[in-house]
Amino acid sequence: MITISTSDYLSDLDGRQPVTRKLQELIDLASQKRAKLIVDPGIYLTSSLFLKSHMQFELSEGAVLLATTDESTYPLLFNRVAGIEMDWYPALLNLIDAEDVQITGRGVIDGNGPYWWEKYWGTDGHGGMRQSYDSKGLRWACDYDCMRLRNLLVMRSKRIQIQGITSANAGFWNVHLLYSQEITVDEIQVDSYHPNSPSTDGIDIDSCQNICIRNCTIQTNDDSICIKSGRDADGKRVGLASKKIRIEDCHLYQGFGLTIGSEVSGGIEDVWISDIDFHGTDCGIRIKSSQERGGFIRKVHIQRLKMENVRYLFHFYLNWNPNYSKCLLPPDYRGPIPKHWEKLLSASDGEKTKVSQIWIKEVSAFFDPSVTKVSRLFHLVGYEDLPMKQLYFENLDVRCLEYGIVRYVDDILMDRVQMSIEGKRQPEYDEYDVR
């Protein structure tokens, strides 16, 4: 294979001068020649880059793609953000309508997170755009209006391999797989944890098919790995399910856990999760939706989990965070209504999310009371008029502080479940992740 090295074309890579144009020219050349582009060690200050079909992109150890904070250099791209199709920034590194691409190496994609986090939360971690929107009763709109950078976007692409790289300091989601198929993500590191890093999901699988996530290590300040398929009326309009998903042999540290939802309007099915270690993660397995979101979650197979100091082992809650999930204009609002607001405000058909056929087996869990004061085995809450159905727990050996809550569940089966519950339910822990 032909190889092209950035060191033959670029010098003085100290992260002070932008190199977007030259780096994109080398990417285009590698695609034309079906070559490998080797990004040699150095700091590459850049805006959005777009990989093309039939190429390899090797981010060498010591190489850093560093996102510029000059927002005027980022184009707008019509794509999906948190379940809604709208114009938003692309990622720092993008594959759009591409096929047969490999991204490899031990280098780093660095989103320059503190700039974007401050844009959302302000300099003190409590203000910024979020405080302004909260004060106006517009909590649900802030995440969409505050455009922040993802690190890696794969959209409408197929036969893509991502291996070995590190995603750090994302402004928004780290790795977003969207409307794509036949994607393997192997041995990547996600390092985006900070107390004020909002919505820094690790890996989001969004209306995709035939996806394999394996051997990844993730710490973040939101969902560690998440499966989605669109939000409300817009997600139903697109109508693309996430299915044939395999997640295996991963280590999850600080973060919100392995999650399905909350954007599930297109449906999620045929998911296989195995051999996951959780270390101080907020949740183990998490399912979330909201009233009238619709869609379905079914045929989810989960096995061989190890949980150490996990706060909520199984957190299934189908009316998650109403202030974010339920979009209503304040009665005194007199401002403009952008197109993406219209989508968020679109009347729902009233359909609730159907959850069924969840198999969970071979789980071991323990907690150290000196480390965590929250340790709940179950928080399983469906809808009163549409309970979750067919939840099967087999061969569990768990030690928790409290048993928790089980409400609106039909046909829950427990076989060889050994549990040690050391205390009573603490109602102050019934609410989780209301931001």
What is the beta-strand fraction? over 45%
Helix content, binned percent: 10-25%
**How would you characterize the largest beta sheet?**
20 strands, parallel
Please tell me what the overall shape is.
Answer: globular
Structural class: mainly beta
Briefly, what CATH class of the domain at 223-430? Answer: Mainly Beta
Furnish the topology, listing elements before pairings.
Elements: E1 3-5, E2 14-18, H1 20-32, E3 36-39, E4 42-46, E5 49-51, E6 55-59, E7 63-67, E8 77-81, E9 84-88, E10 93-96, E11 99-104, E12 108-110, H2 113-121, H3 128-135, H4 139-145, E13 152-155, E14 158-163, E15 166-168, E16 175-178, E17 181-186, E18 189-191, E19 203-206, E20 209-214, E21 217-219, E22 225-228, H5 232-238, E23 242-252, E24 258-260, E25 268-279, E26 283-288, E27 296-308, E28 312-317, H6 322-325, H7 339-345, E29 354-366, E30 376-381, E31 388-400, E32 402-407, E33 409-421
Helix pairs in contact: 2-3, 3-4
Report on the structure:
With 435 residues, the chain is mainly beta. It contains 7 helices and 33 strands. The protein has helices at residues 20-32, 113-121, 128-135, 139-145, 232-238, 322-325, 339-345, and strands spanning 3-5, 14-18, 36-39, 42-46, 49-51, 55-59, 63-67, 77-81, 84-88, 93-96, 99-104, 108-110, 152-155, 158-163, 166-168, 175-178, 181-186, 189-191, 203-206, 209-214, 217-219, 225-228, 242-252, 258-260, 268-279, 283-288, 296-308, 312-317, 354-366, 376-381, 388-400, 402-407, 409-421. A hairpin with a 2-residue loop joins β8 and β9 (84-88). α2 (113-121) runs parallel beside α3 (128-135) and α3 runs antiparallel to α4. The protein is globular and about 65 Å long. The model has no long low-confidence stretch (mean pLDDT 96).
